[in-house]
Amino acid sequence: MDVKTWTYLIVGITFALYIGIAIWSRAKSTSEFYVAGGGVSPLANGMATAADWMSAASFISMAGLIAYSGYGGSVFLMGWTGGYVLLALLLAPYLRKYGKFTVPEFIGERFYSKTARVVAVVCLILVSVTYVIGQMKGVGVVFSRFLETDYNTGLFIGMGIVFFYAVLGGMKGITYTQIVQYVVLIFAYTVPAIFISLELTGNPIPQLGLGGDVADGTPMLAKLDTVIQDLGFNQYTSDVMGSKLNMFMYTLSLMIGTAGLPHVIIRFFTVPKVKDARLSAGYALVFIAILYTTAPAVAAMARLNLTETVRDRPYSEILNKEKNRENKKYEWIRQWENTGLLAWVDKNNDRKIQYSAGDAFKGKPDFKKKKVNGTFEPVRDPVVGHRLLHNKPTSNANELFVDKDIIVLANPEIAKLPEWVIALVVAGGLAAALSTAAGLLLAISSAISHDLLKGIMRPNITEKEELKASRIAMIGAILMAGYFGLNPPDFAAGTVAIAFGLAASSIFPVLMMGIFSKRMNRQGAIAGMIAGIGVTLLYVFQHKGIMFIPGTTFLGDMKENWFFGITPNAFGAVGAAVNFAVAFAVSKKFGQPPTEVQELVERIRTPGD
């Protein structure tokens, strides 16, 4: 069978499982819709949490970021895994002991303020919407490449699947679906890594293969350093992301952003006891570590394979359809070109791909197309064979544009692995994107139906009416996510990092102060949340060229305007510091919280269930 047939088969089976679970686990009460009835076992919840956490960013993008950042990409591994340690130690058990449904509900009652609850809802929605854009975009890209549908069709299919199991089952359906999705995505990630590690180093364990030798006896990392340095890239094993301060702030922002993600926090409301919340976090770390320790090996091996496959490659080999049909050695290049995530242009007319450091094009490649047999096909120059581009080439020698997001998805094709392995990776990428999207959409719908409607607007609403409102809110959240997937904003490429920054600067500090500071009052909490998320939004958006007022800019995307050299994606930690500082400063000007609130803090911090 060819790749397309295998993909339809494997993806079809996984989708059938998701739909079957949704029918079996239909939520019949608000408790089942919001927290799966509170009876999920720690092991099952740990697996579901891992799937909820390992989004399209972890599955598709992380290895690509590490592949091109080298040592500097370790910030993602340290930040994201370190965040789970913070979550397990500082937040999960206490919030589980509090025993309610949502993060804004805790904030509203702890700070005895409906205003605080509304501000928390706004922060939660900003974080979740920003994060979900990347998941929906990932679904569209995977479908458009491997199922040969257009991007919009792929996105609609993904929306339909999420709609079915999230609206029917709520947290109950999402939990058991995520358990299956974890199994799918972890197999999809590790199986190709085992194949490629065995092929390159002779070691079937990718983590060990990363430190092993390639066929000529050279250590793999040393070989990679030599290959990419010869092409003008920085040394893989010593490249860093900015200054040491920026590396520290980036890691810290990812850590506290992880601990503040609302769709992850609510997973710990689904277990029966406080002890189970801690166990869930521990299990989740183990399940996450399987992928996260494999990612550096995938990144390094994929970068080596990609570089050695494309550099100085004659166009005639790539364009020869008959030859490609025989060995499929370069068919992946032709296929990925159709997605716009890979492109090349012959700058020196030598009919070979010159792959080196530097941008190949001014802006993202945009291909001219003509209608051929009823479909639109890219136009190729009849002499040199490369695509004609709207965008002009840059003046440096590099002739190849490679989007980092294709590294994991294209890696099995580059390595010429069996078709079923390629199809398995597709199913894994979709599972990762859909699992996180479902968790985020549930967080959004719960905030609207439980916190805004039930908590503030209509407190006397019946449980049946609230459950109906929850499903309607979920439908609205899915439609909103679909809209942003179809019309992604200009900053969509950095949405994941932005989401972590927003969570770090708004939700994490207020939860920490709510649990560990009995003297923190509502005025301080509200002022801190607004200040933290406000300064982060201003810094991130203005540096990325997103104007609040059309036709104006503030700081621009200039390094000399960065605060102490801190990149916008690392600024969440600064926003968190602003949140803490403003909250404590404002809190001192007002009285202490009521006695019953201080007793609440004392109660949730006391050991025991």
Q: What does this entry look like structurally?
A:
This protein has 609 residues and is an all-alpha fold. It has 2 domains: 3-306 and 420-604, Sodium/glucose cotransporter, CATH 1.20.1730.10; 315-417, no CATH class. It is 66% helix and 2% strand. Helix 8 (151-201) crosses helix 19. The longest helix has 51 residues, at 151-201. The relative contact order is 0.17.
Q: How would you summarize what this structure contains?
A:
By secondary structure, the protein is mainly α. The chain has helices at 3-24, 30-35, 42-53, 56-69, 74-98, 103-110, 114-146, 151-201, 206-209, 220-230, 244-259, 262-265, 274-310, 315-319, 321-327, 331-337, 407-414, 419-457, 463-486, 495-516, 522-543, 572-587, 595-604; strands spanning 342-344, 369-372, 375-378, 400-402.
Computed structural class: mainly alpha
How far is it from the N-terminal to the C-terminal residue, by CA?
A: 54 Å
Strand content: under 5%
Specify the biggest β-sheet: 2 strands, antiparallel
> How many domains, as an integer?
2
Q: Spatial order of the strands in the main sheet?
A: 1-4
Low-confidence stretches: 545-558
Portion in helices: 55-70%
CATH homologous superfamily caption of the largest domain: Sodium/glucose cotransporter
Q: In sequence order, what are the helices and strands, one letter per element? A: HHHHHHHHHHHHHHHHEEEEHHHHHHH
Total count of strands: 4
Please state the second-level CATH architecture of the largest domain: Up-down Bundle
**Shape, per Cα inertia axes:** globular
Helix segment tally: 23
Mean pLDDT over all positions: 82
